[in-house]
């Protein structure tokens, strides 16, 4: 019995407790039963937007090094020309980052994926098409989004172990899908609300004040919108890197920060 409880997530345990409470409440007043069940539903919905509370399943949202370490991660790419420019910038500071890529973008730029790995960076699964509403879709649709991105990367010789949901939202169906595909969920705890690089001006100022030890920093390697702001984006990213170092912190690979691998190289299929 204890083993079965340990294997259940908080939502499942809470669901059983709420159900028992709702049954007991029915004998007091049926309205209490409805209130309890509605409260549980609202709790599950809210938990989708705050995955760091680990209510719907285990989510890695910060490091566990206990040191002045942070990790830099990029979402939504790869894309031309900005991803290559970011890679060059990271090389300048000898920084290894993790790129959570979409299957569609990886298919479009397989050479950039190879370049990322060759330069020592890690690759994570960020769904196939990056549909911002994917977590509202049926189980099979969500499974396909994760599975197809995983298949694309596997054909490139990459076995992603970490999955980051689009826009950082999860749902109750996700944990079982990730478990079936051998993945775990990674989000972040430091971001600048850049709207996918639509708000790149003052990006460094917005994010630097939130950088603390064991932070998982979210950035994007999509071209700025408008694209003319790509130069500003690169300058802002460099400011962030320098600010981290000025705070006496060290930028380490995500795997080192969280204490588990996020990617392994596998034979090409």
What would your notes on this structure say?
This protein has 269 residues and is an alpha/beta fold. The protein folds into two domains: 2-49; 59-265, Glycoside hydrolase/deacetylase (TIM Barrel), CATH 3.20.20. 45% of the residues lie in helices and 13% in strands. It contains eleven helices and ten strands. Strands 2, 3, 4, 8 and 9 form a five-stranded parallel β-sheet that branches. It has a three-stranded parallel β-sheet with strand order 1-7-6, covered by helices on one side. The protein has a two-stranded antiparallel sheet with strand order 5-10. Strand 6, helix 8 and strand 7 (184-186) form a beta-alpha-beta unit. The longest helix has 20 residues, at 30-49. The termini are far apart.
Secondary-structure blueprint of this entry?
Elements: H1 2-6, H2 10-26, H3 30-49, E1 59-60, E2 69-75, H4 82-92, E3 98-101, H5 103-108, H6 110-118, E4 122-125, H7 139-155, E5 158-160, E6 162-163, H8 174-181, E7 184-186, H9 203-208, E8 216-220, H10 230-246, E9 250-251, H11 254-258, E10 263-265
Parallel strand pairs: 1-7, 2-3, 2-8, 2-9, 3-4, 6-7
Antiparallel strand pairs: 5-10
């Amino acid at each position: 019995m204890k083993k079965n409880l340990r294997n259940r997530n908080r939502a499942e345990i809470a669901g059983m407790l709420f159900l028992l409470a709702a049954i007991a409440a029915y004998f007091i007043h049926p309205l209490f039963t409805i209130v309890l069940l509605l409260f549980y539903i609202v709790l599950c919905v809210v938990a989708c937007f705050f995955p760091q509370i680990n209510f719907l399943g285990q989510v890695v949202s910060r490091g566990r090094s206990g040191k002045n370490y942070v990790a830099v991660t990029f979402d939504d790419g790869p894309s031309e020309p900005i991803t290559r420019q970011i890679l060059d910038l990271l090389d300048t500071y000898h920084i290894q980052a993790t790129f959570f890529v979409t299957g569609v973008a990886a298919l479009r730029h397989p050479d950039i994926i190879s370049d990322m790995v060759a330069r020592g960076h890690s690759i994570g699964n960020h769904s196939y098409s990056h549909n911002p509403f994917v977590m509202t879709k049926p189980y099979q649709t969500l499974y396909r989004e994760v599975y197809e991105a995983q298949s694309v990367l596997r054909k490139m010789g990459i076995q992603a172990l970490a999955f980051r949901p689009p826009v950082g939202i999860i749902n109750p169906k996700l944990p079982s899908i990730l478990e079936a595909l051998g993945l775990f969920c990674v989000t972040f705890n430091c971001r600048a609300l850049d709207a996918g690089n639509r708000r790149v001006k003052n990006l460094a100022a917005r994010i630097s004040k939130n950088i603390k030890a064991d932070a998982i920093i979210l950035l994007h390697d999509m071209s700025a919108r408008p694209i003319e702001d790509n130069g500003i984006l690169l300058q802002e990213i460099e400011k962030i890197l320098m600010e981290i170092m000025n705070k006496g912190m060290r930028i380490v690979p995500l795997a080192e920060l969280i204490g588990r691998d996020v990617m392994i190289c596998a034979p090409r299929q």
